[in-house]
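Dear Dr. H.,

I hope your travels went smoothly. While you were away I took the liberty of generating a structure for the chain from your last submission, since the lab meeting agenda had it listed for discussion. I wanted you to have the full record in hand beforehand rather than looking at slides cold. The sequence, exactly as received, is reproduced here:
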Amino acid sequence: MVVSLGHQGVLGDAFAEVSRFRTELYASSTARGDVLFELCDALLCTDGPVRTLVDLALAPEHRRGHGALYGGFNNGRIDVARLRRALARMPLPRAVGGRIVLAADVSPWLRPDASTCPGRSFCHTFGRGGASMSFVKRRVGFW
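The corresponding predicted structure, in token form, is as follows:
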């Protein structure tokens, strides 16, 4: 793969930023940090959804036995304040023009258990060029 010299600087900066974050992530583990760190890698690198702890134990990134996995979950500790600070220091992703790039889930799958604004509920609406579904604000006592 050929990468331009301009791209190499950007990739190097991105690699350095991820490396700094991984260092802070590891440092925020106050107990069983090695196991928790490998569990994070296994979770991120597993192909598809992780439904059980066994899925994580079988991932190549988790190099320890299943006993360490359970030990990490039961006895591992994370300094949440330190991790929060590390996340807050991460730069915001920006497009070429400097605009912030935000990730949003725009899939058509319904998520009835997802968090929504207070006072909103799910309802079907019709007549807008076909059936559409939306969240609308409901008054208290409105049936």
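Two observations you may find useful: Residues 5-27 form the longest helix (23 residues). Residues 28 and 84 are 9 Å apart (CA to CA).

With kind regards,
E. W.
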